[in-house]
Design goal:
Length: about 170
């Protein structure tokens, strides 16, 4: 970890480390959860008790508040990888999908999910504390759609192209 609390080594993404993923494009942009209540209201629920709720992973502007929607929990997984769970419900893992990221189904034990490549992440550092957040095969990275910085812009799996919308740092919380 560097003097500013940024993770600088893959081994630091473990042991229940609480972190926030910050975009290289703008220090106010974090990887975040957006949820919509069944009634149509929106906002982070604080605790994910019902995954039937419509939710997606997208840009969160930290200056708008609701810091809980940007806190992740990292745990070591097989093969130099790690899982990311949401701070409000660390048993709810982030999962790679075809069109975007989603949250795991709480009905599946987390210990079983940790072996699934769809729930695992790794990093390739590109400059100091900055890295690409990869899937285990390293053929997809976390990418902010269209390099947009607007609140709720989707974060999606995409092929690496080295754009600033694909570079992150992990800040210890």
């Amino acid at each position: 970890m560097d003097a500013y609390g940024n993770l600088t080594d893959l081994s630091e993404f473990a042991n229940g480390r609480r972190l926030r993923l910050i975009s290289y494009m703008d220090p106010d942009i974090a990887f975040g959860l957006h949820a919509a209540r069944p009634s149509g209201g929106s906002g982070f629920l604080g605790e994910i008790g019902n995954l039937a709720l419509e939710c997606f992973i997208g840009v969160r502007r930290m200056s708008l508040g609701d810091d809980n929607a940007t806190i992740l929990i990292a745990e070591a997984a097989p093969g130099g990888t790690f899982t990311l769970g949401w701070g409000a419900d660390p048993g709810c893992l982030l999962v790679w999908g075809d069109g975007g990221f989603r949250l795991s189904n709480d009905n599946i034990p987390v210990d079983d999910m940790a072996g699934d490549p769809l729930t695992r992440f790794t990093v390739d550092f590109v400059d100091g504390c900055w890295f690409a957040l990869n899937n285990p095969d390293r053929d997809r990275v976390a990418d902010i759609t269209g390099e947009h910085t607007d609140e709720r812009t989707p974060i999606i799996p995409w092929s690496w192209n080295g754009g600033s919308n694909q570079i992150w740092r992990a800040e210890a919380v």
